[in-house]
Amino acid sequence: MQQDGDRLRWGVLRRLEFIDFRLFWDGRFNRSDLAETFGISTQQASADIAQYEKIAPANLAYDRADKAYKRTVQFVPAFIGKTIERYLLQIVAVENRWMRHEDTWFEAIPPVEVVTLGRRSTDPTVLLRVLDAVRNRLEIDVEYASLTGSIRQSRTIAPHAIAHSAGRWYLRSWSREHNDFRDYNLSRINEVSEWRRSTVDPALDFEWIHKINLVIVPNPELSPERQAAIAAEYAMENGNLVRPCRLSLSFYLMTQHNLDVEPGKLKPEKQQIVLQNMEEVFQAKAAARQMSIEALARAKGNQG
Amino acid sequence: MQQDGDRLRWGVLRRLEFIDFRLFWDGRFNRSDLAETFGISTQQASADIAQYEKIAPANLAYDRADKAYKRTVQFVPAFIGKTIERYLLQIVAVENRWMRHEDTWFEAIPPVEVVTLGRRSTDPTVLLRVLDAVRNRLEIDVEYASLTGSIRQSRTIAPHAIAHSAGRWYLRSWSREHNDFRDYNLSRINEVSEWRRSTVDPALDFEWIHKINLVIVPNPELSPERQAAIAAEYAMENGNLVRPCRLSLSFYLMTQHNLDVEPGKLKPEKQQIVLQNMEEVFQAKAAARQMSIEALARAKGNQG
DNA sequence: ATATCGCGTCAAGTAATTGGACGCGATATC
DNA sequence: GATATCGCGTCCAATTACTTGACGCGATAT
């Protein structure tokens, strides 16, 4: 199968993958499904099906009554692989209108409800300019939606990385106004106007570069059974989860899971996990921040 | 271009899309990139590039010095469309190891950090059986990881929908043990053994079917500026956001955003939005639950 | 100066795909 | 219970997509 996979043309491979996909998700497919999805003739579709049958004969059987190929109980995906999470994500993307149903291979989107509050989506042009700036070490002028939302402020930033947390996209950047590194909410950037080479070394962003191990344990106020379940869900070893994390991002992770709330304020169910080394994280973050500010000031001094 | 798009073969269209993609994300691409990604000859790749140039001549220019095609400033995506969020999601998927880098079109994954605590991923076979059960109205026996994580419990459920919230997947199901509808965490289902036709009508799951409008406003304890910014971020109209939501899912949405925490317990920054009609939601949910339980009991009485 | 690399292109050959035609079996229609 | 319909499979010649091989061109590296 591996050899077969290598010598098959890219297009044919995709079509076999499609067969695999539909068998997995719908349990059935038609010759015409294949023909319509890829814009090929029925003859070619028949040939493709025959080829799939040669590779994985036990996976499907034609049901004359239903006029469709159906998945057998022995079915094992031969092409789409073991990580099906990506397709689940497609469903989420369709529900959020990030992706069109036609751009997926789903015939019927499974009855999946996505529980989220939709936010404004990112402007492609902004994203494009921002990515360029990151890649080519540029300093850019951006129009940043002020807190009031009405007045538009111009900022000069030199972004060097992007981060994603809880549905929000952040831009890690040096700020000319403050001469330090901070996070900008990508969806609040409306326009990128000018760009020029940046003179700031992103290696000075110690809050970004330095990582710390977050030591996470189930909330001890929960019953032992519940704690064990949570340990299993997060695949904890020895009762704790050690998650390396950039210092500047640690707060987002903490916010996401209510790790930054003092114990006792929330019901334990709302705070299923807690952070053991919070103090250490706080101190490390503050120290790194200080280091960056001083290094940037020194660099500016040398330059001017 | 539309006509061109229709008459182009599926494979060619994908390759033009690839050119568009690379121009967007990397700002550049090679003939050999195209050839290697799709397993075609360099000649064919040249032909494809020529075709793309015919369709969108202003989008790219060959840079002899760099030996690469480069994006021009006038670049406007001609194939990949306006919703680029789907590709951002791919990056998240790669970072979370749900997807392989090779299965995307990214040459270099942009320096994106994904802030999340990875959870155990879903077993494809379980997902497959569960989807079948939903689609064909089956009752299935599942092995559900008990709270202790060690003892395995068998449950008989008839699932009828799937929900996704904050990285977790839930299965909305009727439960034989309790004769009511409840949620099962998909990642805690280890195995699906037997299946048979279900006799329970999912239309009786009123907590699922009935929707309620969640009325969400910025936390009034925040400064007016901050409130305005949050209103903008969530695209609120008249200062509030009305989000229709299935009753059974309303709690997940509330949990995600700390809407279910009494005011004053958390710092306002950790509770940027609040729910105005919490009492109404609670009552509606309880009423629907009661209705379901009674309807199910009646149905059982008629049956037995 | 010379080698190397990526590009473009011409020409001939091969593989993929189409269009047309036919038969087969299961369901729906009257 | 005859008849139409639909989706499938398959044979054929014709067409299109793609490959293999060969050559020249310009920019960079040695």
- Quote the beta fraction of chain A: 25-35%
> Structural class of the secondary structure composition of chain A?
alpha+beta
Taking strands numbered 1, 2, ... along the chain, how are they ordered across the largest sheet of chain A?
8-7-6-5-9
Percent helix range of chain A: 25-40%
Number of strands of chain A: 12
Question: Unreliable stretches of chain A, pLDDT < 50, 5 or more residues?
Answer: 1-6
Q: How would a textbook summarize the main sheet of chain A?
A: 5 strands, antiparallel
Radius of gyration of chain A: 26 Å
Number of helices of chain A: 10
Protein chain pair with the most extensive contact, residues per chain: A-B, 95 and 95 residues
Superfamily at the CATH H level of the largest domain in chain A?
A: Winged helix-like DNA-binding domain superfamily/Winged helix DNA-binding domain
Return the average pLDDT of chain A rounded to an integer.
88
**End-to-end CA span of chain A:** 64 Å
Shape of chain A: globular
At CATH level 2, the architecture of the largest domain in chain A is Orthogonal Bundle
Order of helices and strands of chain A: HHEHHEEHEHEEEEEHEHEHEH
- Please give the oligomerization state of what you see: homodimer
Just give the CATH class of the largest domain in chain A: Mainly Alpha
InterPro entries (chains A, B): CapW-like, CapW_CTD, CBASS_pafABC_assoc_protein, WHD_CapW, WYL_dom
Domain DNA-binding transcriptional repressor CapW C-terminal dimerisation (chains A, B): 212-281
Domain DNA-binding transcriptional repressor CapW winged helix-turn-helix (chains A, B): 12-91
Protein name (chains A, B): WYL domain-containing protein
